[in-house]
Amino acid sequence: MNSTEVLDFALKAISDRHGEDTEAYDMRGISILADYYVVTSAGSNRQLHAIANAIVEEAHENNYTDYRIEGTRDSNWLLLDLGDVVVNIFTKDSREFYNLEKLWADGKRVEIKED
Predict the structure, then answer these.
(1) What pLDDT is stored for residue 87 in this prediction?
(2) Whole-prediction pTM
(3) Which of 13, 74, 91, 103 is deepest in the core (most CB within 10 A)?
(4) Which CATH architecture has domain 3-109?
(5) Strand 36-42's sheet: what is its strand order?
(6) What is the pLDDT of residue 115?
(7) At a CB cut-off of 8 Å and minimum separation 6, what does 26 contact?
(8) What single string gives the DSSP state of each residue in the chain?
(9) Beta carbons of 109 and 25 less than 8 angstroms apart
(10) φ, ψ dihedrals at 102, nearest 5°
(11) What is the pLDDT of residue 106?
């Protein structure tokens, strides 16, 4: 499965669980760590974990098992490492505090199509 297909199922899962202010950055040729970085916000800690679980479910449905989750049950920020796609899910306050988007300013923003 290529990185664009992984990005697509991650964005679908985020949309299905109503992630907010989702942004994706194409970092191919810029970062050696990942092809795409994604950031989204959740209205609550519960929604944050629901989004992460939805991404894991989509991964399994797509027979994709190359992933890791960083963060705990009490975290306000979860990182899903899907190989060439890294997804950061934040509560709104944590996203504002960490402001990770500034790290990816050199990347090209990916247009996200809403279903």
Answers:
(1) 98
(2) 0.93
(3) 13
(4) 2-Layer Sandwich (3.30)
(5) 68-70, 77-81, 85-91, 36-42, 20-26, 108-109
(6) 57
(7) 35, 36, 107, 108, 109, 110
(8) --HHHHHHHHHHHHHHTT-EEEEEEE-TTT-SS-SEEEEEEESSHHHHHHHHHHHHHHHHHTT----EEES-TT-SEEEEE-SSEEEEEEEHHHHHHH-GGGGGTTSEEPPPPP-
(9) yes
(10) -65, -25
(11) 87
Amino acid at 53: N
Place of tokens 């504002």: 96
Tokens at 57, concatenated: 């479910």
How many whole angstroms separate alpha carbon 33 and alpha carbon 84?
Answer: 7
β-sheet bridge partners, residue 68: 81
Q: Are 89 and 19 in contact (CB under 8 A)?
A: yes
The answer to whether 107 and 25 have CB atoms below 8 angstroms apart is yes
CA 36 to each of CA 30, 47, 84: distance values in angstroms, whole numbers, following the listed order: 10, 23, 6
